[in-house]
Specification:
Elements lengths: L4 E10 L2 E11 L4 E5 L6 H9 L6 E6 L2 E2 L11 E3 L11 H11 L4 H14 L15 H13 L5 E5 L7 H18 L2 E6 L2 H7 L2 E6 L2 E6 L1 H6 L4 H6 L4 E9 L2 E4 L2 E4 L11 E6 L4 E2 L9 E11 L3 E8 L5 E8 H7 L6 E6 L5 E4 L1
Parallel strand pairs: 3-8, 3-9, 6-7, 7-8
Antiparallel strand pairs: 1-2, 1-4, 4-5, 9-10, 11-12, 11-14, 12-13, 14-20, 15-19, 16-17, 16-19, 17-18
Length: 355
């Protein structure tokens, strides 16, 4: 099946600076894709190129079989929502939503019907006569979303639409965006630097760094099987341990020898980094063989329903390690600062990269 949107060899130069380097990506009909990466990685530039608000230095954009690489933004089939809402303060909510319909010369009755439908869709049925300044940040972003959907585009572009909102509103609105996207079957691209946001709603995540795509995959694939140190570090909490390769997938980390199930081979004596998620540990029913550790809890970080305990582990050459526990586990194990804790590392979850 042919992809809904194809980006082929997209490059973007700003003078001597390379903002995007050989971007190739195919997005399927009805898919929600997140461009994830730190500030300055090129994700917003790529979104603006798709929208026609920025021109690529080279490369091709195919949308539903049509080459739109050099089309004016008004000739492209999309709706867009910006971080800043970009509502007209002098227009009512209804007129803000209707703006694109008026420009396309829809009839008065058709506009009124569509605006009413969209206000109901975003849960603001009684707000049509109000002005943006009378609405909260979350409500204004709902209005911006309704305006983007007004002309029934087949592609929705979201440029960090939730970053200006407080945490509770952000979580609620991202769930609403996800619900609407699935309900409408709308192909959606969302730019974000928030890993939790991307992992919670995306069908696929495109991790970007320094103008290139580091990895494309489902949230679980990105989290569980990072293909580079950058992805491992950027997506979720992770431990990074210094080690030495000993051949046959064995690695020495301080006094401890660990065997990875990773297929990549490393030269004997090569310095490597072992990456391990805080939850990838065994606390109860420790293995009988001598590969478990005892750590001294130096600090406990409370994160709501879970906690991160930072341990200093003598067998790992006194390197620190973060282990994750639920709050219930913290109580059951009576974990506290200064306590010693025996544990084993889940070697099947270790990822190894060269230094």
């Amino acid at each position: 099946m042919e992809s809904y949107l194809q980006l082929k060899h997209i490059n973007k130069q700003f003078g001597q600076f390379t903002a995007l380097n050989e971007i190739n990506l195919a997005i399927n009909q009805g898919e929600l894709v997140c461009f994830l990466g730190p500030s300055g990685c090129g994700k917003t530039t790529l979104l603006r190129i798709i929208a026609g608000l920025e021109k690529q230095s080279s490369g091709t954009i195919i949308q539903q079989g049509l080459d739109i690489s050099h089309r004016h933004p008004a000739e492209r089939d999309y709706g867009i929502v910006f971080q800043s809402y970009a509502l007209f303060p002098n227009l009512t909510i209804a007129k803000n939503i209707a703006y694109g319909l008026v420009n396309r010369k829809y009839g008065t009755d058709a506009i009124k019907t569509r605006v009413t439908e969209l206000l109901n869709l975003v849960g603001l049925a009684d707000s049509g006569d109000k002005y943006p300044t009378q609405m909260s940040g979350g409500q204004q972003q709902r209005i911006a979303l309704a305006r983007a959907l007004a002309t029934s585009p087949n592609l929705l572009l979201l440029d960090e639409p939730l970053s200006a909102l407080d945490a509770t509103v952000r979580v609620h609105l991202r769930n609403e965006i996800c619900r609407l996207q699935k309900q409408l079957g709308l192909t959606t691209i969302m730019v974000t630097h928030d890993q939790e946001e991307a992992l919670s709603i995306a069908d696929r995540v495109v991790v970007m760094n320094h103008g290139i795509i580091e990895q494309i995959g489902s949230p679980l694939e990105i989290y569980r099987n990072p293909v580079s140190p950058f992805v491992a570090d950027f997506v979720g909490k992770i431990n990074c341990l210094d080690a030495i390769a000993e051949g046959n997938h064995w690695f020495r980390c301080g006094e401890l020898r660990l065997q990875s199930q990773q297929k990549k081979r490393f030269k004997h004596g090569e310095k490597v980094k072992l990456y391990l998620r805080p939850e990838d540990r065994i606390i109860e029913q420790l293995p009988a063989h001598n590969d478990h550790c005892v750590g001294i809890i130096k600090h406990i970080e409370f994160l709501g329903g879970k906690c991160l305990a930072e341990l200093e582990v003598s067998r790992l050459a006194h390197q620190s390690l973060q282990l994750q526990f639920s709050v219930n586990q913290m109580y059951d194990l009576n974990l506290k600062q200064g306590q010693s804790l025996p544990f084993a590392i889940r070697t099947d979850r270790i990822h190894v990269f060269s230094v």
